Each structure stands twice: as structure tokens, then as C-alpha cells.
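In response to reviewer comment 3 from the previous cycle, which asked for concrete evidence that the modeling workflow produces usable outputs, we include below a single protein chain processed end to end. The sequence was submitted unchanged, and the resulting C-alpha cells are shown without manual editing.
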Amino acid sequence: MNGLEKKSKLTLQQQIAEQLEIQITSGELQVGQRLPSMRALGRQYDVSHETGKGAINILQEKGLVEIIPSKGAFVVNSQKQEITSHGLIGVVIDNGEGTTPKDQLHILFGNILTAVHDLADEFGWHPVSSYVSYTDLQSRAQYLEMLKKIDGLIIVNLIDVELIRLAQSRDIPVVALMPATIEDLVDVVGIDYIRTYFLATQELIERGCRHITYMDNPKPFDAAKRRWLGVKQAVAQYDGDDIILDRLDVTAWTMGKYQEAVEAWLKEGNRPDVIISANDHMGVVALNELQRAGIRSPEEIMVLGSRNTSVCELSHPTLSSIDFNYEKLVEIALKRINERIQNRKEVNMRISINGHIVFRDSIIDTNRD
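The workflow returned the following C-alpha cells.
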């Protein structure tokens, strides 16, 4: 296994560290040379990312390497090396009024947390995460305690801008990641919702959908408005083609409310070609309610989710969904935090990428032979 011995008394990370140390002391890896990333070491030695991370940490403790934020681990002169510690970066999931269950929030944004933990070391950070509701006094107090410890902050699903102001008042650089509210007072990294939902809707129309139902919460969140605008703009392109677009509104971000809304909507006799839902939970509930009503999916009604979370593979049929490339978003956010620390006077940036559809069984694939 790439020079590693399974039966060795040394752990895998110790063996990797030992091999790298030999390369350093022999001069094969010279002072100033960059080591492979934690992830690259994992691939090279066929071990986990955490094992590669452990090997680098061993070398750091020995004073053989220095980890420079946003650049990686570099060989240093061990006689002059001063061990530098990582900073703490907070990752906060904004729960607004605190009405969304934490287990659902974790499913919606768990991919982001995973990406932060996977990439943080490469940018010189130790991540700590929390769910925050500004309107809840206890939650806000816990957030203030977090701000005392961290050097950078990523706020996911930003709803209350007061969370930003509290951090900025303590001179903590902040990035809003996939914010529900967009303000000019902070760096924003997110999805171009208008373009993403425009392209997704256009793809469905090109696949023959002529009656489209869009399912979302009618509250005027910025992201919700942009999703809806993207869908409408795509349909408007086909003016004269008799394409029908309507909405299925849900009053709260809970599975129970999704079920009630879809059940009542189906009883009214609605039968579109496709349901585009604002998140994967809505899509899964729609599939379940279609099945209960004796309606086949995708043959009679297709369903598209959003966020491409783990629940997509657990539904029957499996749920097609819009993927947001969380790893790329997190990479951009971490890089921006480091840039902000180096130059705190930089103007705020707004960086957006497009999502794309991951096709599964809930949409008929007309491209198959």
C-alpha cells in the first residue's frame, strides 16, 4: 500500500510522517518547498484525508514544516522554526426565527459544514460550527461567546444582518455564504439563483415539459425571489408555446407543512408535467404524496429538488436535484476570509457561481438511448 505496512507498530499517519521526514532530512524536500496537501497525501497513500492531516501535524510538531494560511505546508529550517498555530474560523448556520428544526438544517447545509472541515486545513484554519437564531436570547449569547474566540466567520443562510454587525464590531472578517438576505456590508459568496433556475427550467422545457409548477415559501426572502424570477424568465422565453407556469406555496419550512400543502394541492386536481421545488425536502415530500395519491413519477409528474443533499438517494424514485457545488463555494469563501485578513480595507465582493441539475429517476431522461 504505497510503502505503508499494515502490521507496523506505527500508525499510518506516523509512517507517512516518517517517510516525509526522510525526504526532508535527505534534502529531497528542501527548505521552502511545499508539501502535498492533506487531500493529495490521502490519495497518494490511499488513506483518509484525516490521516494525511495527522501526518502533516506530526511534522509541524517536530518543527519541520510550517503551515501558511491559504498556501499550504512548507519545509522550514528546523533550527529557526517557530510553531505557528491555526486560527479558529466560525461557521454559523443562521436559523432566522428559529423555526426550522436543526436536523433539517443539518441536512440542508451539512454538505457545507463537511466541505469546510475538509478544506479548512489547506487555508490554515480550525473550524468551529454552530446554529444561531438572533431573535433567541440564549442562542445569541452563545454566538457572542463564539465571537470572542474566532478570527474569521462564515455565515450560511444569512437572514439577520445583525449577526454580521456583531462580528464586524469585533473586527472579525465575515463572508456570507449562500445568504437568504444580501447586503452590501459584507463579502457574499453564493449561487446565481436567477441564472441557475433559468437554466434548470429551460432544460425541463427542452425535455418536453409544458406545465410547470414551482414550489416554495412565499416569504419575500431574496433567494426565494431570485429563484422564482429565474423560473419565470425561462418560461417567458417560450412566449406563444402555451407553457403554463403556476406556484405551490408552503407556509413554513417544515416537512409537515410541505405535506399539507402538496396533499391539498393534489386534491384540487393539479397535474403539471413537473414540480420544481426550492429544496430537496419539498421534493421528497412531493414524491411521497404523489405515490399516496396513486400518481406515478416520473411517468405522470416529474419532480426536481434543490441543493442535491443526501436525501435525494433515499427517496423512491431517487430525486433529481440542482447541485450547488458546495466545495467550490467553501473554497472561495475561505480564500476570501484570508484575503480580508491581509487587507481589511478591501471593498466588499459579491461572487456567484451557477448550479446544475443532477439527473436521477424522478425526471425522465430523454437523452438516454
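The two ends are 41 Å apart (CA to CA). We consider this sufficient to address the reviewer's concern, and the full set will be provided in the supplementary archive.
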